[in-house]
Amino acid sequence: MGYTSFIMYTLIPLGNPGEKYFKTRHNVGRIVLDLIKDDILALSNAELFIPETFMNESGKAVSEYLRYHEGREIIVVYDDKDLPFGTFRIAFDRSAGGHNGLKSIIDSLGATDFIRIRVGIAPHDVDGKEKIAPHGEDVQDYVLGNIKEDEEESLRSIASQLLGAIKTIMEEGYKKAMGKYN
Q1: What is the pTM of this model?
Q2: Quick one: which of 4, 114, 141, 144 is 20 to 30 A from 16 by CA?
Q3: Which phi and psi (to 5°) does residue 159 adopt?
Q4: Does the annotation count 26 as an active-site position?
């Protein structure tokens, strides 16, 4: 009789806890997964783990979670200020790219070999053209700023695509998902 492996995936949206931060750009991973939460939880091989730590301490929560849930594949969903707002990219085994929440996870796990979904939060001009992402001291104000109505609509519009990408990762692997969605 053949053996079929069953891989459990845990989606981990990064963000900051509390009402004050709920609708900030830094929490877009949480916001967009919240839009498709019921669909994710309906999948037999999917779990959702939302760290209750602040973004820069995400690694503590993730490593503690994995201590009690060995063998899980993790998919970390987080904001990327260098991608256009309302887009996403799938990646695997990369550096933190300057994202402190991701750096915390990499440092705590001592590894980079996990799946990430970067959700773009780069600003747009009024005519829809992409603006230069904030750098230096401006980054914190921008990422901790509340998302606007049109930005929230952009997240709603990519939610079903994101769900498709997650399903593809789980059914066919991250490489297929990257080829299809990146």
Answers
A1: 0.91
A2: 114
A3: -55, -45
A4: yes
Asked if 16 contacts 28 with a C-beta cutoff of 8 angstroms, the reply is: no
Q: pLDDT for 12-60, tens place per residue?
A: 999 999 999 999 999 999 999 999 999 999 999 999 999 999 999 999 9
Identify the residue whose tokens are 């990257």.
178
Cβ pair 124, 130 in contact under 8 A = yes
Cβ pair 116, 102 in contact under 8 A: yes
Cβ contact 114:58 at 8 Å: no
Task: Point out the catalytic residue in the list 26, 69, 99, 124.
Answer: 26
Q: Are 55 and 14 in contact (CB under 8 A)?
A: yes
Choose among 44, 35, 38: nearest CA to 9.
Answer: 44
